[in-house]
């Protein structure tokens, strides 16, 4: 096997030597060596990278751009990076000692999982902002919350019938990685080394658990949280792709977070579909009315938006709640956003990991205050002002406020029915040592807020009203209440003999 390893190294050196000096872009010798093999072994990866901005712009050139046109936030970069493009070696050999997945590979110390700490070499502000997100904490906020852990088990765990009732067990690692943690993110760890056959002979690689995954809250081997590739997929890392609504569709289409489906029925999407061919989805800054004429998800939540005259309507942010005063989804009641992206610290008076009581009152100490809510709404209104008048914007947000109040009220009515079932011993909630999500009436209650209230709120917030009526919206909020009332009556009936 040593001869095959030597042959691989010789091929790398020979191919790299053939490329050096022939490239029109300043590619480092180390990246040239990577390309020498990987253009044959993983040609799709190399082709994607060649189409990327990374492959055609050096960090030094990026730093020389006017401030509003920069796509990097670092004040400076290591000198070795200034004059070469960002290639394989610049990412996969960065900070090798911090990566437990670093291994020796053809004379290089390479790690498989590129993390936010690596990207922060050029994008430190983006990394810091993203780290404050609910998204960055999505794994722990789900799996570190005992209440939501029970919901995960009720949704994905194996269930057996023991002759008297259903027994729900926690889901295994592979099921989780293919279910909730596909979006929330897995915990990626190194589980030893393994030998694999490759085109260059047998080679040793780290064996990763929780892999593959590109979830927004992935826990990486170096301990960092999040995956930039959730939105900017490998290996183009395209801002254009991240600005397309389809980038968000992968995690925001189900009945629990139906943002994409709501967007599809909005007037914004009608404009996008009819005119996107003339848009500049790569422009930085992104000029409203010139580069685009209706918002996508990134317009409202992340991108640097300016007027044709150069006035900044919204600075770029990777803290996705920076322009949101409400947390609309994933909770029985919509509340103000939490102060911290780490919501595992939240406890209500009942000891549950929820930012509100079961009766709907918010747990204010863990939530942003009214002044911060107003600041965040003002940022979103500024985005809207690129196309809409003040009266239009005011009316939109007044409707959203009303929708939050009415959907919370309908969830409260469903909660009253569930509490009656628990208090009467007709179902076993957390007070009786039970899983609050595994019985039929409990699942109806979950659907009341996780599906129907969520859909109604999203439809109001994103101007996709049709989805919020009969498609998992207001009709189902009312229907579900009727079903829960009838089910409570069914459970209350005394057993009858034959």
Summarize the structure.
This protein has helices spanning about 1-20, 30-40, 45-50, 60-65, 80, 90, 115-120, 125-130, 140-145, 145-155, 175, 180-185, 240-245, 245-250, 260-265, 265-275, 295-300, 370-385, 390-425, 440-460, 475-490, and strands spanning about 100-105, 110, 160, 165-170, 190-200, 200-210, 285, 305, 310-315, 325, 335.
Q: Can you tell me the residue ranges where pLDDT is under 50 for at least 5 consecutive residues?
A: 1-23
- In the sheet with the most strands, the strands line up as 7-8-9
Shape estimate? globular
Number of helices: 21
Could you tell me the radius of gyration in angstroms?
Answer: 26 Å
SS class: mainly alpha
Q: Give the helix level as a range of percent.
A: 40-55%
> Could you give the count of β-strands?
11
The average pLDDT is 93
Distance between the termini: 77 Å
| Major β-sheet annotation | 3 strands, mixed
Strand content: 5-15%
Description:
The chain has 498 residues and is mainly alpha-helical. It is 42% helix and 9% strand. It is built from 21 helices and 11 strands. It has helices at 2-19, 29-41, 43-50, 59-63, 79-82, 88-92, 116-119, 124-131, 138-143, 146-156, 173-177, 180-184, 239-243, 246-249, 259-264, 267-275, 297-301, 370-384, 390-423, 440-461, 474-492; strands spanning 102-105, 108-111, 159-161, 166-168, 189-198, 201-209, 286-287, 305-306, 312-314, 326-327, 335-336. The strands form 5 sheets. The chain has a 3-stranded mixed beta sheet with strand order 7-8-9, with helices on one face. Strands 1-2 form a two-stranded antiparallel ribbon. A two-stranded antiparallel sheet has the order 3-4. Helix 19 (390-423) runs antiparallel to helix 20 (440-461), helix 19 (390-423) packs parallel to helix 21 and helix 20 (440-461) packs antiparallel against helix 21 (474-492). The longest helix is centred in the C-terminal third of the chain and has 34 residues, at 390-423. The termini are far apart.
